[in-house]
Amino acid sequence: MEIVVTGRHWDVSAKFRTHAESKLAKVEQLAPRAQRIDVLVSHEANPRQADSSARVELTVIDKGPVVRAEAASSDPYAALDLALDKLLERLRRARDRRKDHHRGGGRGLAGLASTVPVPQPEPEPESESEAPESVWGDSPVVIREKVHAAQPMTVDDALYEMELVGHPFFLFIDAETNQPAVVYHRRGWTYGVIKLDPTAATAAV
């Protein structure tokens, strides 16, 4: 399993790199098929954000869904520990789900609350993505564009993948309609689904 450690606005020392590789060795126990772990360490120079100036993002590249976690602290070593705790919990969920499917019974939406803690959405930092940006006309609005490969999936699978990356929403292709849809977390164990139907728009006109 390859571990790739990179820094953004922060020089990654050999000591931190060795420490990260040692800590992340635990990942292989829960994800033996993992091909790579990307570790991104970023630093925020704003003194008002000193308590969260160091941010660590961990992404496990596997044959299945991408599993991701991030955390921030005043120290990169502490941020790594916090992010790793989240990552290991999500990897345990993925392992348990695989076991359930092998036994012939998926948890489904009814069993989601029994195995997954109430999700805590992780805000996306301004520097997270290297996606191309464009300015909207003459305005100060900046648009960041991301393109993801997508396979049709059920709402159940979309909720599962949303939990694994720690986001409050997840865009996917609905396997039943083959149309774009979004699942999102509302509050407690309440979720929402937004689906697009071009024929409904035509009928409304």
Main sheet, how many strands, which sense, barrel? Answer: 4 strands, mixed
Mean pLDDT: 78
Number of helices: 6
Helix content: 25-40%
Beta-strand fraction estimate:
25-35%
Residue stretches low in confidence (pLDDT < 50, at least 5 long) are 106-129
Helix vs. strand class: alpha+beta
Count every beta strand, where a strand is a DSSP E run of 2 or more residues.
Answer: 9
User: What is the CA-atom radius of gyration, in angstroms?
Assistant: 19 Å
One letter per element, helices H and strands E, the order comes to EHHEEEHHEEHEEEH
The largest sheet has its strands arranged as 1-2-3-4
Q: Which secondary structure elements does this structure contain, and how are they paired or packed?
A:
Blueprint: E1 2-8, H1 14-23, H2 27-30, E2 36-43, E3 54-61, E4 67-73, H3 76-103, H4 112-115, E5 133-135, E6 142-144, H5 155-165, E7 169-173, E8 180-187, E9 190-195, H6 198-204
Parallel strand pairs: 1-2
Antiparallel strand pairs: 2-3, 3-4, 5-6, 7-8, 8-9
